[in-house]
Amino acid sequence: MTLGGGLLIAGTTSDAGKSVVTAGICRWLARKGLRVAPFKAQNMSLNSFVTRDGAEIGRAQAMQAAAARVEPSALMNPVLLKPGSDRSSQVVLLGKAVGEMSARGYHSERREGLLETVTDCLTELRRTHDAVICEGAGSPAEINLRRTDIVNLGLARAAGLPVVVVGDIDRGGVFASFFGTTALLSREDQRHIAAYVVNKFRGDVSLLEPGLDMLRDLTGRPTVGVLPYAHGLGIDEEDGLRVSLRGTVRESVVAPPYGADVLRVAVAAVPLMSNFTDVDALAAEPGVIVRFVDRPEELADADLVVLPGTRGTVKALEWLRERGLADAIARRAAEGRPVLGLCGGFQALGERIDDEVESKAGTVEGLGLLPVRVRFAADKTLARPVGEALGEPVAGYEIHHGVAELLHGGDEPFLDGCRVGPVWGTHWHGSLESDGFRRAFLRRVAEASGRAFVPAPDTRFGELREEQLDRLGDLIEEHADTDALLRLIEGGVPDGLPFVPPGAPGGTD
After folding, report:
1. Which residues catalyse the reaction (predicted)?
2. Are 68 and 38 in contact (CB under 8 A)?
3. CA 66, CA 77: separation in Å to the nearest integer?
4. How many CB atoms lie within 10 A of CB 503?
5. Where would a tag sit more exposed on the chain, N or C end, judged by fewer CB atoms within 10 A?
6. Cα–Cα dist 351/368, whole Å
7. Of 26, 343, 400, 479, which residue is the catalytic one?
């Protein structure tokens, strides 16, 4: 059987740009008319998506599938780990949750069977596509995890893939990172490291070239791209928003408001925040400013407060109360100022939560702002609902263990949830990407807030996303050696790549 070409994009670190480069290569190849698919064997992320057939995968892979102009599939992300604490994660296998597992248990017990599963999925994608662009995780030089690796060199060796390593030069030390990453690998692993890509470069490339020449002399491997620092890419993030710095501003369109006023949106940065990409559609609106906050005083000037999804609803409630945010949100509601709860945030706004599944905390009082009781079920709801709300068509997706019982309908229904006064809640993720519905909702928010804000009539979120994906394709087409990339994709692992000492500790292969 002839398989399609393949390439694995690894990184010197997490957040080096693997997702961006993978998506960019997918879009570049799709524009060339090739059938291309993304693949990530194992993904750790709280940002996930539901495929049309009801499978849960990482949002980064769904974004990469959009870049490739193909429908996302569980084959593209066979293993998804959703952290529930620093030490354990929910394991989602081929789109379905199969249980919780500690990090030690996962790495010691599951690797052998999972490697076979992920290689089978990759083989099927390669059978049906001209090329499959795989994304690694973290760094391939995590020598403590090499024995159980199924996503970096473990996958590359099992599937015969050449590897391109991406380094973030904006962090500094990129040459040391490239050299060290290669030199810490065993001889057999190094055989797959074929090239490097520099990401986030600012300045004159000619000043970098002597270093690239020296890197090639040291390692025997070329640099096949120097990608410039690109502002405002706005793609779906994988491993979680960096919210350690307060007041993080979500990337948004740099455009003046369409009306006389702006709208300020404050998103509570709750623990285990999931699918915070829901607010991207708000940030895409001219005149809407989205910030992530963790103090009650930061809600004072907000026209809308969003309680986002979370994989720890009970933990999020504790956090909101400890920080004084729960009281601040209750005061907002009493004053008639808008609050929106999405998925776990919707559950937190209810009256009571019965949870013997996620936190195992039993019965916990919610914020009491919506007439909802939530019972956590062992089986996860995964759905792609469509409907109508606020007089507009709307579509979304659902990912939750909590089953909400509406004690009464509130003032009006709101998707699968309800509205009571200025407080809105729904399990639907992605609903704000529906343009007409988003505009109708923002008009309600502006009216309740007394703002002379008017949604722009021509903002189309889907088109903005397509423009961003084309920008990623342009990065590859304009700043990478595309002929060299094609040779790797079609020809596989190059012959004669030299060994860079010292190699893996202990001489392990």
Report:
1. 343 (nucleophile), 429
2. yes
3. 14
4. 19
5. N
6. 4
7. 343
By CB neighbour count within 10 A (0-12 exposed, 13-18 middle, 19+ buried), where does 188 fall?
middle
The rounded Cα 247 to chain-centroid distance in angstroms is 20
**376 close to 388: Cβ distance less than 8 angstroms:** no
> Does pLDDT of 253 surpass 70?
no
- The set of residues, in sequence order, having a beta carbon less than 8 Å from that of 184 and lying 6+ positions away, is 141, 143, 503, 504, 505
Tell me the Ramachandran region of residue 5: left when phi exceeds 0, alpha when psi lies from -120 to 50, beta otherwise: beta
Q: Which residues, 6+ apart, have CB-to-CB distance to 486 below 8 Å?
A: none
Long-range contacts of 353-361 (CB under 8 A, 24+ apart): 353/313, 353/314, 353/317, 353/402, 355/313, 355/314, 355/402, 357/401, 358/84, 358/311, 358/312, 358/313, 358/314, 358/401, 358/402, 359/312, 359/313, 359/314, 359/315, 361/314
Tokens 């599944």, residue? Answer: 357
| Calpha distance 170→12 (Å, rounded) | 13
Check if 429 is active-site: yes
Q: What's the pTM?
A: 0.92
Residue keyed to tokens 């009464």: 408
The set of residues, in sequence order, having a beta carbon less than 8 Å from that of 72 and lying 6+ positions away, is 49, 51, 57, 61, 62, 65, 66
pLDDT at 241: 43
**pLDDT digit string, tens, across residues 76-120:** 999 999 988 777 889 999 999 998 877 666 666 556 678 999 999
Q: Among the options 129, 400, 427, 429, which is catalytic? A: 429
Q: Which two tokens stand for residue 101?
A: 């597992």
Q: What is the pLDDT of residues 273-319, one digit of tens each?
A: 999 889 999 999 999 999 999 999 999 999 999 999 999 999 999 99
Q: State the pLDDT at residue 409.
A: 79
Kindly report the backbone phi and psi dihedral angles of residue 98, in degrees, each rounded to the nearest multiple of 5, phi listed first: -120, 5
pLDDT one-digit tens code per residue, 310-333: 999 999 999 999 999 999 999 999
Q: Check: CB of residue 373 under 8 Å from CB of residue 405.
A: yes
pLDDT computed for residue 107 by the predictor: 60
The band of 353, judged by pLDDT with boundaries at 50, 70 and 90, is: very high
Mention every residue, 6+ apart, whose C-beta is less than 8 A from residue 238. Answer: 19, 43, 45, 47, 58, 59, 60
Strand partners, 48: 58
* CA 479 to chain CA mean position, Å: 25
Rounded to a whole number of angstroms, the distance between the first and last alpha carbons of the chain is 29
Return the bridge partners of 131, or none: 5, 36
Q: Domains along the chain?
A: 5-235+466-491 (3.40.50.300), 263-456 (3.40.50.880)
CB 290 within 8 A of CB 432: no
Rounded alpha-carbon distances, angstroms, from residue 158 to 133, 141, 163, 424, 428: 15, 17, 13, 49, 39
300 φ/ψ angles, rounded to the nearest 5 degrees: -60, -45
Of 262, 261, 260, 325, whose CA–CA distance to 293 is shortest?
325
